[in-house]
Amino acid sequence: MLTLEQAAERLGTTAPFPRRLIAERGTAFVKVGRHVRTAKSALDAMRLRCG
Hints:
The protein is mainly alpha-helical. It contains 3 helices and 2 strands, in the order ααββα. The longest helix is centred in the C-terminal third of the chain and has 11 residues.
């Protein structure tokens, strides 16, 4: 599981981009208490869908 900052680094973007993806339900995520995490596989699947 990746933090939003790690997800942004993996995607080559800034931190607001993964936050927007989650808000728009563009990728799967899990809430751990107050924190949001996303799986590497979910990011890879999103990248394949978006090209």
